[in-house]
Amino acid sequence: MQEHGEVSPGGNSSVVATIKWFNVAKGFGFAVPDGQNRDAFLHASVLEAVGRTELPEGCRVVCDVVEGPRGLQITAIHDVDAEAAPVVGEVSQIEGTVKFFNNQKGFGFVIPDGGGRDIFIHARVIEGAGGEQLSAGQRVRMTVRHGARGPLAEGLDILP
Protein backbone atom coordinates (compact mmCIF):
# COMPACT_ATOMS: atom_id res chain seq x y z
CA MET A 1 0.00 0.00 0.00
CA GLN A 2 1.22 3.48 -0.73
CA GLU A 3 2.02 6.35 1.60
CA HIS A 4 -0.85 8.71 2.39
CA GLY A 5 -1.36 11.95 4.29
CA GLU A 6 -2.89 12.95 7.59
CA VAL A 7 -6.50 13.67 8.50
CA SER A 8 -7.32 17.27 7.71
CA PRO A 9 -10.06 19.21 9.53
CA GLY A 10 -13.21 19.74 7.48
CA GLY A 11 -12.06 17.96 4.31
CA ASN A 12 -11.46 14.46 3.03
CA SER A 13 -7.95 13.13 3.43
CA SER A 14 -6.66 9.79 2.12
CA VAL A 15 -5.01 7.81 4.94
CA VAL A 16 -4.06 4.26 5.86
CA ALA A 17 -6.06 2.83 8.77
CA THR A 18 -6.35 -0.45 10.69
CA ILE A 19 -9.80 -1.96 11.24
CA LYS A 20 -10.41 -2.14 14.99
CA TRP A 21 -13.72 -4.00 14.64
CA PHE A 22 -16.74 -4.18 12.37
CA ASN A 23 -20.13 -5.59 13.43
CA VAL A 24 -22.15 -6.73 10.40
CA ALA A 25 -25.39 -7.01 12.43
CA LYS A 26 -25.11 -3.42 13.68
CA GLY A 27 -23.87 -2.11 10.34
CA PHE A 28 -20.89 -0.19 11.63
CA GLY A 29 -17.44 -0.42 13.14
CA PHE A 30 -14.29 1.56 13.81
CA ALA A 31 -10.80 1.90 12.40
CA VAL A 32 -7.69 3.67 13.70
CA PRO A 33 -5.95 5.90 11.13
CA ASP A 34 -2.14 5.67 11.24
CA GLY A 35 -0.68 8.41 13.44
CA GLN A 36 -3.97 8.98 15.29
CA ASN A 37 -4.87 7.96 18.81
CA ARG A 38 -8.62 8.07 18.17
CA ASP A 39 -11.06 5.95 16.22
CA ALA A 40 -12.77 6.73 12.92
CA PHE A 41 -16.39 5.63 12.49
CA LEU A 42 -17.04 3.24 9.58
CA HIS A 43 -20.63 2.76 8.32
CA ALA A 44 -21.73 -0.30 6.33
CA SER A 45 -22.73 1.92 3.37
CA VAL A 46 -19.04 2.79 2.85
CA LEU A 47 -18.21 -0.92 2.57
CA GLU A 48 -21.17 -1.58 0.29
CA ALA A 49 -19.89 1.12 -2.09
CA VAL A 50 -16.80 -1.07 -2.72
CA GLY A 51 -18.73 -4.35 -2.89
CA ARG A 52 -17.96 -5.58 0.64
CA THR A 53 -20.16 -6.41 3.60
CA GLU A 54 -17.47 -6.81 6.26
CA LEU A 55 -13.78 -6.36 7.03
CA PRO A 56 -11.71 -8.54 9.38
CA GLU A 57 -10.24 -7.03 12.53
CA GLY A 58 -6.67 -5.89 11.92
CA CYS A 59 -6.93 -5.52 8.15
CA ARG A 60 -5.45 -2.36 6.64
CA VAL A 61 -7.37 0.01 4.38
CA VAL A 62 -6.59 3.11 2.35
CA CYS A 63 -9.55 5.38 2.98
CA ASP A 64 -10.81 8.95 3.01
CA VAL A 65 -11.35 10.31 6.52
CA VAL A 66 -13.14 13.52 7.42
CA GLU A 67 -13.24 15.35 10.75
CA GLY A 68 -16.95 15.82 11.45
CA PRO A 69 -18.94 17.26 14.35
CA ARG A 70 -18.93 13.83 16.08
CA GLY A 71 -15.29 12.96 15.37
CA LEU A 72 -13.46 11.13 12.60
CA GLN A 73 -15.52 9.35 9.94
CA ILE A 74 -14.46 7.19 7.01
CA THR A 75 -16.22 8.42 3.87
CA ALA A 76 -14.66 6.14 1.21
CA ILE A 77 -12.42 3.07 0.95
CA HIS A 78 -9.92 2.85 -1.92
CA ASP A 79 -7.86 -0.27 -1.10
CA VAL A 80 -8.17 -3.22 1.32
CA ASP A 81 -5.25 -5.35 2.55
CA ALA A 82 -6.99 -8.23 4.34
CA GLU A 83 -3.67 -10.13 4.40
CA ALA A 84 -2.52 -7.76 7.16
CA ALA A 85 -5.19 -9.05 9.57
CA PRO A 86 -3.71 -11.12 12.41
CA VAL A 87 -4.57 -14.83 12.40
CA VAL A 88 -6.49 -16.05 15.47
CA GLY A 89 -3.99 -17.78 17.73
CA GLU A 90 -1.02 -15.90 16.24
CA VAL A 91 1.47 -14.51 18.77
CA SER A 92 3.41 -11.30 18.20
CA GLN A 93 5.55 -8.72 20.02
CA ILE A 94 3.80 -5.34 20.23
CA GLU A 95 4.75 -2.05 21.86
CA GLY A 96 2.13 0.38 23.08
CA THR A 97 0.93 2.87 25.66
CA VAL A 98 -1.21 1.99 28.68
CA LYS A 99 -4.69 3.43 28.15
CA PHE A 100 -5.78 2.57 31.70
CA PHE A 101 -5.29 -0.11 34.33
CA ASN A 102 -7.72 -0.65 37.22
CA ASN A 103 -5.89 -2.30 40.13
CA GLN A 104 -9.15 -3.06 42.00
CA LYS A 105 -10.65 -4.92 39.02
CA GLY A 106 -7.32 -6.40 37.95
CA PHE A 107 -7.33 -5.49 34.28
CA GLY A 108 -6.77 -2.71 31.76
CA PHE A 109 -6.03 -1.92 28.13
CA VAL A 110 -3.01 -0.87 26.06
CA ILE A 111 -3.18 1.16 22.83
CA PRO A 112 -0.87 -0.55 20.29
CA ASP A 113 1.63 1.69 18.47
CA GLY A 114 0.65 0.27 15.08
CA GLY A 115 -3.04 1.00 15.54
CA GLY A 116 -5.80 -1.55 15.73
CA ARG A 117 -7.83 -2.87 18.59
CA ASP A 118 -6.80 -2.10 22.18
CA ILE A 119 -4.98 -4.97 23.90
CA PHE A 120 -6.50 -6.50 27.04
CA ILE A 121 -4.07 -6.99 29.91
CA HIS A 122 -4.85 -8.94 33.10
CA ALA A 123 -3.20 -8.41 36.52
CA ARG A 124 -1.59 -11.88 36.44
CA VAL A 125 0.48 -10.78 33.40
CA ILE A 126 1.81 -7.85 35.45
CA GLU A 127 2.53 -10.13 38.41
CA GLY A 128 4.59 -12.33 36.09
CA ALA A 129 6.61 -9.25 35.10
CA GLY A 130 7.54 -8.34 38.66
CA GLY A 131 4.26 -6.97 39.99
CA GLU A 132 4.92 -3.32 39.17
CA GLN A 133 1.71 -1.26 38.87
CA LEU A 134 0.73 0.15 35.49
CA SER A 135 -0.50 3.69 34.96
CA ALA A 136 -2.00 5.54 32.00
CA GLY A 137 0.63 6.79 29.56
CA GLN A 138 3.24 4.19 30.53
CA ARG A 139 5.12 2.50 27.65
CA VAL A 140 5.15 -1.30 27.45
CA ARG A 141 6.26 -4.16 25.18
CA MET A 142 3.98 -7.19 25.22
CA THR A 143 3.74 -10.71 23.91
CA VAL A 144 0.23 -10.69 22.46
CA ARG A 145 -1.99 -13.58 21.39
CA HIS A 146 -4.71 -12.72 18.89
CA GLY A 147 -7.80 -14.55 20.14
CA ALA A 148 -11.40 -14.76 18.95
CA ARG A 149 -12.37 -12.02 21.42
CA GLY A 150 -9.44 -9.78 20.47
CA PRO A 151 -5.78 -9.28 21.37
CA LEU A 152 -4.65 -10.47 24.81
CA ALA A 153 -1.32 -9.72 26.50
CA GLU A 154 0.47 -12.87 27.68
CA GLY A 155 3.80 -11.30 28.64
CA LEU A 156 4.94 -7.80 29.55
CA ASP A 157 8.05 -5.64 29.75
CA ILE A 158 7.80 -2.08 31.04
CA LEU A 159 9.82 0.25 28.83
CA PRO A 160 11.91 3.14 30.17
UniProtKB/TrEMBL annotation:
Report domain CSD positions: 14-79, 93-160
MF GO annotations: nucleic acid binding
Superkingdom: Bacteria
Query: Which InterPro entries does its entry note?
Result: Cold_shock_domain, CSD, CSP_DNA-bd, NA-bd_OB-fold
Q: Name any GO cellular component annotation.
A: cytosol
The record's listing under Pfam families reads:
CSD
The name on file for this protein is: Cold shock-like protein CspE
Which lineage do the record's taxonomy fields give for this organism? Answer: Bacteria, Pseudomonadati, Pseudomonadota, Alphaproteobacteria, Sneathiellales
Identify the gene encoding this protein: cspE
